[in-house]
């Protein structure tokens, strides 16, 4: 009877969505299991139609069988207060450490957003290599920018250390990932803020080619001066070793995401007594919590602004991407504890785009917008990335 009730519930939901008349409750299961035992007195029944509907509902026979054998994960149902979570005494020490890092995040983003680059000065200097005045003008324009880029890079190092401390608190025994996230909501909120900052930083960086152009010009000029045995004052602040590390950082398409990925992998390798599943389960649970909050009206109504809904959505996206980077087989295999398709079951339509499945550079969800001009900055990143990869 439990199986019959389950199938009846699924069929009822499917009929309610499509507006079609609900089919007899035994046809779906019997048809999908390739049996010919179909209830009589149902001449209007269309087993193929019903089975296709159910397949669409669960996206394949594999997931259908999971439903029939009760292997579908029960997602954690609790409200993670992204707006007002406050640390308990047990969380306060780690919370203070992370908060000291995150308090600079908004100024970092504002500084990056205001970054205009020295493109005209560099272009004039390259076109007129014998004009000393133009060379000095370009150099004087680039040096302050390199100092700003150094600040961004140094913040990524602080963020990397903060994330490792956070993961240690959210994955340690004896609690499960769900228990950690429910009990330590202030730390979970900080984890979400780190992911949110990461997506915003990488969005701004990817849309600003001046960053790499400026730094490349700086490296070339420094190398040329070394050949001429000249020492510049800025080398005292950005020495060769620092410049090499910064170069690797900014060469990444998504440098902050790469930083988080490296930090997570380093945490796993340093804590050999802690199974990697503790870390990946923390990420998959965070995804499930965000998904449940987005699709549950009771939880959504507790958010005071639409921006918090977008925050929750971006965090879900960030966690999925991070999971794909650190999990041995990624987020897009059948055995993954994250079913990426769950994200489409949100209270409003959400599109999913993915590029480079295993080496995920892009996975963004958003509510559809009628015009490109109406896209948010977050959405514009997806448009830019898809175009860069040759998608229309």
UniProtKB/TrEMBL annotation:
Cross-referenced Pfam families: CYRIA-B_Rac1-bd (PF07159)
UniProt key word Repeat: no
GO molecular function: small GTPase binding
Stored InterPro entries: CYRI, CYRIA/CYRIB_Rac1-bd
Ranges for domain CYRIA/CYRIB Rac1 binding: 78-345
Signal peptide, first to last residue: none
Membrane topology recorded in Swiss-Prot or TrEMBL: Lipid-anchor
GO cellular component, one term: membrane
Statement: the UniProt record of this protein carries the keyword Lipoprotein: yes
Source species, domain of life: Eukaryota
An example Gene Ontology biological process: regulation of actin filament polymerization
Sorted UniProt keywords: Lipoprotein, Membrane
Compartment(s) of residence: Membrane
Family affiliation: Belongs to the CYRI family.
Subunit composition and interactions: Interacts with RAC1 (GTP-bound form preferentially).
Protein name as it appears in the record: Protein FAM49A
Organism, scientific name: Sciurus carolinensis (Eastern gray squirrel)
